[in-house]
Amino acid sequence: MTKNDQSKGGTATHTSRRQKIRDNGHHLARHNLWELFLFLLVSICAYNVRELNLFTMASEPLRQLLGYPPPAYMISIALAVYFGSSVVLGLKALAYRTKPTSTWNHLGYRSAFYFFYSFTGSIAEHFLPVLLLGLLLYGLDQCHLRLYNQGTMHGFDGVSENL
């Protein structure tokens, strides 16, 4: 232990644990940014095929099996419910300072709405709301990561030498 470590009340273990917390925070932030990048790539692809109607492209037997696609307003209601529940869960995680997790589920959920709208042939009209809501949710996720990491590091600074 160096003289500087003693004056700060820290040990090698303290520094090691602090570094592990910092590395985990960086890993989660990188994961979230990769997920955002992939969402933007999916959005670019959806924009390029915005006039596509997957339902009319399907064969007649498949269309009979699937039935008619739901109207676009029902998909919009599902998008609003998903967005609202994600915001509530994100704000709850911020309020209770829960540890962020790294899953790829949200990329699939947010990207699926482009796919749903493609069955109704209405990606062009609904592209911007899907993109903006997805970006807002990724921003909320990034805020959660940032505030959690700051709170963890701030709380760790006050921990005693016995850790």
Topology:
Layout: H1 3-8, H2 12-48, H3 54-57, H4 60-66, H5 72-96, H6 105-120, H7 123-157
Helix pairs in contact: 2-6, 2-7, 5-7, 6-7
Transmembrane segments: 32-50, 70-91, 112-140
Keywords: Membrane, Transmembrane, Transmembrane helix
Region (Disordered): 1-21
Describe the structure.
The protein is mainly alpha-helical. It has one domain (10-157). Helices cover 80% and strands 0% of the residues. The chain is built from 7 helices and no strands. It has helices spanning 3-8, 12-48, 54-57, 60-66, 72-96, 105-120, 123-157. Helix 2 runs antiparallel to helix 7 (123-157). The two termini are 15 Å apart. The relative contact order is 0.18. Residues 1-14 have a biased composition (Polar residues). The chain crosses the membrane at residues 32-50, 70-91, 112-140. Residues 1-21 are annotated as: Disordered. Keywords: Membrane, Transmembrane, Transmembrane helix.
The major β-sheet equals: none
Evaluate the radius of gyration.
22 Å
Please work out how many helical segments DSSP would assign: 7
Helix content: over 70%
- Head-to-tail CA distance between termini: 15 Å
Q: What's the rounded overall pLDDT mean?
A: 83
N to C succession of SSEs? HHHHHHH
Number of domains: 1
Note the overall shape: elongated
Percent of sequence in beta strands: under 5%
Number of strands: 0
- Uncertain regions spanning at least 5 consecutive residues: 156-163
By secondary-structure content and strand pairing, the structural class works out as mainly alpha
Keywords: Membrane, Transmembrane, Transmembrane helix
